[in-house]
Amino acid sequence: MDKIFTALASTPRRKILAYLSATSLTAGEIAERFEMSKPSLSKHLSILENAGLISREKKGQFVHYSLVPDKLTNTLNGFAQSICPVGGPLIKESKDIANKREPLPITAPDE
């Protein structure tokens, strides 16, 4: 539990969670949204991963980071971010990125 509170105590880490709310992102895509060095970003990602809030998956030559969906902490943080004046726009940006990447499936109406 201490690792989770430590992870959430940082504004950049809360912003990273908001960016990951609707889609996975590479470290490079996350870095584009922050003015910090790559080692600093790597440390933030490591803290979030060690707290069990995010996971990473290697896809080709890139590592994609995403939220761990079954964490109550992420659910609560997502709610707080959605009503936060800073987090709300970041969540919207995350959804926009997801919509550009993953077309919605076309389903036939129920008959």
TrEMBL record:
GO terms for molecular function: DNA binding; DNA-binding transcription factor activity. It comes from the Bacteria. The keyword Transmembrane does not apply. It holds the Pfam family HTH_5. Residues 1-87 form the HTH arsR-type domain. Keywords: DNA-binding, Transcription, Transcription regulation. The keyword NAD does not apply. SUPFAM superfamilies: Winged helix' DNA-binding domain. Transmembrane segments: none annotated. NCBIfam families: HTH_metalloreg. PANTHER family: TRANSCRIPTIONAL REGULATOR, ARSR FAMILY, TRANSCRIPTIONAL REPRESSOR SDPR. This is ArsR family transcriptional regulator. It comes from Litorimonas taeanensis.
